[in-house]
Amino acid sequence: MARRFLVFSGHNDRAVVALCRFFDQAGLPFVIVAAGQGDAIHRTRWRDHVIFNRLDAVVTVSWLRELAGSQEGGLVYCPTTEFINHFLLAHRDALAGCGLEIGLPDQAIYEALTGKHSSQALMSALCPDLHLPATQPDGHWHAPCVLKPRANVAHGRVLYPILCRSSAELDQALTGLDRGAYFAQDFIVGQSHYLCAYLSREGQVASFWQLNLMQQPGGKSIVLARPTGNPGLDEARLFKGLHAQGYHGAFMLEVIESGGQLFYIEVNPRFWGPLQLALDVCPDILRLFAHDQGFDTPGLPALSPDKAAYAWAYGANQPGCVVHPAGQTLMPAELDHLLYTHDVYARDDTQALHACH
User: How far apart are CA 177 and CA 197, in angstroms?
Assistant: First the structure.
């Protein structure tokens, strides 16, 4: 049996759906490990690709070796979840030879990029035209600020930034918080942009910019976005520097445009939630990913950027969604129309999830 891509469902569901669509369109073999019988993947066209239903979130070396050994031809891991990425990198040597191809870059450069604290210095060196939000002295944190974890994974769980717009929100966030695990930066108000890309082992790059229109509260998932132009970053220098540092793989950089300057927010060196927009307008991002794993695919057609949008309708139903400046130029009825029409699940392969997942 041929090598197949391995997708872990139940984490980063929208990215999982985009990957499944890409594999279908490109004719590439793949299998899915689902997060139990209740995983939404069972209500999609790809239910028959599920080879295992997990009973819990625990990942062990012995279980991964057993899973890979049960599949003839070998499995190629798809990086969609920070927790499993972190585990695989930490246990790479122990997993060698089991039939699971990890494909991630070296642990040192991955952790330097994904770490909210460590990436500050790295991105400043690679992108001198990016500004860093001011870091507040320990013991003197004040709102508005963002509390960012120094390490993404601690004590077996993923830590996330905490947005504190007021003193009351900061006081609430600090209740029971391990302050030594976090640092605080000034809260930057402005327009959010994503640079979405894939940097291959050979140094090839496929990328596009995403303009974020709406986002869940607390800096969580983007629920509405459109393609856009480069707001002013020296992309060539960034990718050349990353390649020189030994990085290859999926890459999403968030910047906020404020007061005529670009501020660095974070990097996700893995596939991101609104991945469907990449498949729609820059499918070479996923083609390069497949090529890096030894699969050659023909180029897929791309939508015209002016006709494309990404939306997650159900996610937008959460109270308190933030409308970014670019979204504030649209009437509420226009936003609702975009959310429903471009819902990531509003397609034949996921119709059972449309506007309800």
Answer: 34
**Rounded-to-integer distance, Cα 261 and Cα 190, Å:** 10
Residue located via tokens 């991630």: 104
Which SS3 state, helix, strand or coil, does residue 248 take? coil
Euclidean distance between CA atoms 313 and 225, whole angstroms: 12
pTM of the model: 0.97
Q: What is the mean pLDDT of residues 241-256?
A: 98
**Residue-level pLDDT at 57:** 87
Q: How many CB atoms lie within 10 A of CB 308?
A: 18
pLDDT for position 313:
98
Alpha helices in the chain (DSSP H): 13-26, 61-69, 82-90, 92-95, 107-114, 118-126, 167-174, 235-244, 275-281, 284-292, 332-341
Confidence of residue 96 (pLDDT cuts 50, 70, 90): very high
Q: Is the pLDDT of residue 1 over 80?
A: no
Q: Is 91 exposed, middle or buried (0-12, 13-18, 19+ CB in 10 A)?
A: middle
Q: How many CB atoms lie within 10 A of CB 104?
A: 21
> 86 Cβ partners below 8 Å, 6+ apart?
152, 153
Does residue 242 contact residue 199 with C-beta atoms inside 8 Å?
yes
